[in-house]
Design brief:
InterPro entries: Cyclic_Pdiesterase, RNA_CPDase. Pfam families: 2_5_RNA_ligase2. This is RNA 2',3'-cyclic phosphodiesterase. Belongs to the 2H phosphoesterase superfamily. ThpR family. The protein has one domain: Alpha-Beta Complex (Cyclic Phosphodiesterase, Chain: A), CATH 3.90.1140. With about 190 residues, it is an alpha+beta fold. β4 and β5 form a beta hairpin. The N and C termini lie far apart (about 40 Å). It has a five-stranded antiparallel β-sheet, covered by helices on one side. It has a four-stranded antiparallel β-sheet with strand order 3-1-8-9, with helices on one face. The protein has four helices and nine strands, in the order βαββαββαβαβββ.
Length: about 190
């Protein structure tokens, strides 16, 4: 049986909690149809789509052999943004400061996925944490209801990236992402 899989940076619990509190406030102000469950917050590195058991086994082996040599690093939430039409966006997200370690990690993960036979995205990597999807008010444009200051409670929030996770998607559940396996990066004491 094929499973829908993706590789991502997990968001620590305390950061999820703070972002979740902000989302609850923003739900009252921004009419998106779907808000991401607090436990589903993550930063996607590679979407793999339908994955067979053999593909998954090979990818896990590859991740275990190659990712532990990459150093851990910090990320800082720095801004908010939107994908899609500016007046009625598809996605509302939080961005992070551009950290070289993140781009190295993403490039490595993409390369390993490609070697394992997965088709990978060709669009430039745009690191973000999705908060909401599908604008729900045809009469209100985002620029009339959104102010960058709305994200002040999470701007500057910093967290350590010490691992990546393979998640499986369960569209019929909440939270809908289940951890399959976690892969540690090189810790500070291992450098």
């Amino acid at each position: 049986m094929n499973r829908h899989i993706f590789a991502a940076v997990p968001i620590p619990s305390h950061v999820k909690s703070t972002i979740g509190e902000l989302s609850e406030v923003l739900k009252e102000k921004l009419p998106f149809k779907q808000w991401v469950h607090q436990e589903d917050l993550h930063l996607t590195l590679a979407f793999l789509g339908q994955t067979s058991q053999n593909q998954l086994i090979n990818l896990k082996e590859s991740f275990h052999m190659n990712l532990h040599d990459l150093p851990s690093f910090s990320l800082t939430v720095s801004r908010a943004g939107f994908f899609g039409k500016l007046d009625q966006p598809r996605i509302f997200w939080l961005g992070v400061d551009e950290e070289a370690g993140l781009f190295t990690l993403q490039k490595t993960v993409h390369g390993l996925c490609q070697k394992a036979g997965f088709p990978v995205e060709t669009r430039p990597f745009s690191p973000h944490i999705t908060l909401a999807k599908r604008w729900g008010d045809a009469d209100a444009a985002i620029n009339s209801v959104f102010d960058e200051n709305m994200i002040n409670p999470v701007a500057g929030l910093t967290f350590e990236v010490r691992s990546i996770v393979l998640y499986e998607t369960h569209l019929d559940k909440k939270p809908k992402y289940k951890v399959i396996e976690e892969f540690n990066l090189k810790g500070e004491d291992e450098h």
